[in-house]
Automatic annotation (TrEMBL):
Residues at which NADP(+) binds: I6, G7, N8, G9, I10, M11
Keyword terms of this UniProt record: Amino-acid biosynthesis, Cytoplasm, NADP, Oxidoreductase, Proline biosynthesis
Annotated source species: Poseidonibacter parvus
Reaction catalysis annotation: L-proline + NAD(+) = (S)-1-pyrroline-5-carboxylate + NADH + 2 H(+); L-proline + NADP(+) = (S)-1-pyrroline-5-carboxylate + NADPH + 2 H(+)
Protein name: Pyrroline-5-carboxylate reductase
One cellular component (GO) term of this entry: cytoplasm
Heme among keywords: no
All copies of domain Pyrroline-5-carboxylate reductase catalytic N-terminal, residue ranges: 2-77
InterPro entries found in the cross-reference section: 6-PGluconate_DH-like_C_sf, NAD(P)-bd_dom_sf, P5C_Rdtase_cat_N, P5CR_dimer, Pyrroline-COOH_reductase
Gene3D superfamilies in UniProt: NAD(P)-binding Rossmann-like Domain, ProC C-terminal domain-like
A single GO BP: L-proline biosynthetic process
């Protein structure tokens, strides 16, 4: 299947890197030089600059611009596409329907790990396009179909924004090891291994069980864990997800 990405930013490039393995990929952007540089890095894609009257008739579009650019880009699109897949945070299906003509509409929320084919992508929209959507986004990682846009907005907070939150934890742990006296390159390697091993454990174990099985009475883990509770890490995580979700809802009202 041929897929047309509109936008050439971080996410369009991440998606393209994964999608080229199984699909024909066209990338439409504003700047020819930027597109050429991207094509040098992902030679399988075809590139095209956005026309003032860009014909999308019969195409399968993955819309990858910033939410605020929906209005200005959509006025340049003519014709009716087959399926419009949007990755825009917060932007409602109703808003897409008002501004871009398509047979079917799908909202998706991938994450930056699409670039290494390990995205966690949440999807909702027209049921007629469900199987195609799951098939396309499965080629860049795991997928989860949900039935409401509200669920997708919550998924945006956790799986869309989540890499930034986990990256913060990874960076902080690394700094902690450096603070304790370990060389940075060794600290970094340890944290990479830690994340990968813990991700494997999480496939089959509840987080609380993992925590309980690590924490010995009066041991090192308990000593460190107390500090995390003092720093309200759990409370901060819950508040972060709530704030990101509220922002997605707010973007949807614009
Ligand atoms: N960065 C991330 O981790 C994720 C981002 N998203 C969503 O992906 C979308 C793109 O985000 P990024 O790739 O991070 O942003 P970016 O800034 O890297 O890319 C945005 C793209 O939109 C284009 N664009 C902006 N205004 C335009 C206009 N007026 N006319 C034509 N093109 C225009 C830019 O040229 C660029 O190609 C956003 O809607 C965001 O909500 C979704 C999941 C994860
Ligand atoms: O920060 C944002 O708004 C986008 C959506 C999810 C990840 N990045």
């Amino acid at each position: 299947m041929k897929l047309t990405l509109i936008g050439n930013g971080i996410m369009a490039q991440s998606l393209a890197r994964g999608l080229v393995k199984n699909h024909e990929v066209e990338m439409i952007g504003r700047n020819e030089n930027t597109l050429k540089t991207i094509q040098e890095q992902i030679p399988q894609i075809t590139i095209k600059t956005l026309d003032d009257q860009e014909n999308i008739e019969g195409k399968n579009i993955i819309f990858c611009v910033k939410p605020y650019a929906l209005g200005s880009v959509s006025t340049r699109l003519v014709g009716e596409c087959d399926i419009l897949f949007s990755i825009l945070a917060g932007t409602k299906l109703s808003s897409l329907k008002n501004q871009i003509k398509s047979k079917y509409y799908v909202r998706t929320m991938p994450n930056i790990a699409a670039s290494v084919q390990n995205s966690m992508t949440t999807i909702t929209g027209d049921n007629e396009a469900k199987n195609i959507a799951l098939d396309i986004f499965s080629s860049i990682g795991k997928t989860l179909w949900v039935n409401t846009e509200n669920q997708l907005d919550i998924a945006t907070a956790i799986a869309g924004s989540g890499p930034a939150y986990l990256a913060l934890v990874a960076e902080a742990l690394t700094d902690g090891a450096v603070n304790a006296g370990l060389e940075r390159h060794l600290s970094k390697e340890l944290v990479q291994g830690l994340f990968s091993g813990t991700a494997s454990l999480l496939e089959n174990s509840h987080p609380a069980i993992i925590k309980d099985s690590v924490m010995s009475p009066g041991g090192t883990t308990a000593a460190g864990y107390t500090k995390l509770e003092e720093g309200a890490v759990r409370d901060s995580m819950i508040k972060a997800i709530n704030a990101a979700y509220s922002k997605a809802v707010e973007l949807g009202k614009k």
